[in-house]
Design goal:
Catalyzes the conversion of GTP to 2,5-diamino-6-ribosylamino-4(3H)-pyrimidinone 5'-phosphate (DARP), formate and pyrophosphate. It is an enzyme of class 3 (hydrolase). This is GTP cyclohydrolase-2. By secondary structure, the protein is an alpha/beta fold. The protein contains eight helices and seven strands. α4 crosses α5. The chain is globular, with a radius of gyration of 19 Å.
């Protein structure tokens, strides 16, 4: 970001944190949301929170959804991301109020789209999702949730019921000052294409996925 030059040529402090830029109505197949757009001055990413109804401040039903182009837009069955996003939007609408924070810059657990595709290619050769990232010399999970906490704080949210199977999301939010009063499971029925990926998330990344125990017919 370019430096701001103030009066008499003095440099103004560079902005940090998240800035609310726009609030626009967004009718969807799930219901009528408000799309609240933000600029993350620390990373340069554009972010959006989809807000439904009068959310209040406490125990707000909330999803932090990491960007996943292949799952969210293309319907990939390599992961469950697209189905989770749809389920979260439906749940918020059914609740009558809630927030889905869509986190750009989180593609492939933070490694980026092309690196994620390279990791998927390695998984097709037999590595699991953790091994693939490490084989590429990349972190297993590079995501940061500070911007999500900043967005929730701007919306006036103090505590959430977090739709997630990932305890690291819960812990990260709490470190950033957002209380998590409940972790709400967001369990998607597995398919043959993603069962190995989901089992790896449970066994190596500590995701709470008890419904996988009932799946025995895929190796």
């Amino acid at each position: 970001m370019t430096e701001n030059i103030g009066v008499l040529g003095k440099k103004s402090p560079q902005r940090t944190g998240v800035e609310r830029v726009v609030n626009a109505p967004l009718p969807t197949v799930y219901g009528k949301f408000q799309a609240v757009g933000y600029l993350d001055h620390d990373r340069g990413d554009e972010q959006v929170a989809l807000v439904y109804g009068d959310i209040g401040t406490d125990q707000v039903l909330t999803r932090l959804h990491s960007e996943c182009l292949t799952g969210d837009a293309f319907g990939s069955q390599h992961c469950e991301c697209g189905d989770q996003l749809a389920a979260a939007l439906r749940a918020v609408a059914a609740e009558g109020a809630g927030v889905v924070v869509y986190l750009r810059g989180h593609e492939g657990r933070g490694i980026g789209l092309l690196a994620k595709l390279r990791a998927m290619a390695l998984q097709a050769e037999g590595l699991d999702t953790v091994e693939a990232n490490l084989a590429l010399g990349l972190p297993v999970d590079a995501r940061d949730y500070g911007v999500a906490a900043g967005i929730l704080q701007d919306l006036g949210v103090e505590s959430v019921r977090l739709m997630s199977n990932n305890p690291r999301k819960r812990d990260a939010l709490q470190r950033h000052g957002i209380q998590v009063t409940e972790q709400v499971p967001l369990l998607i029925p597995p398919c043959e294409s993603n069962i190995t990926y989901l089992r790896t998330k449970r066994e190596r990344l500590d995701h709470n996925l008890p419904h996988l125990d009932a799946v025995a017919h895929w190796s």
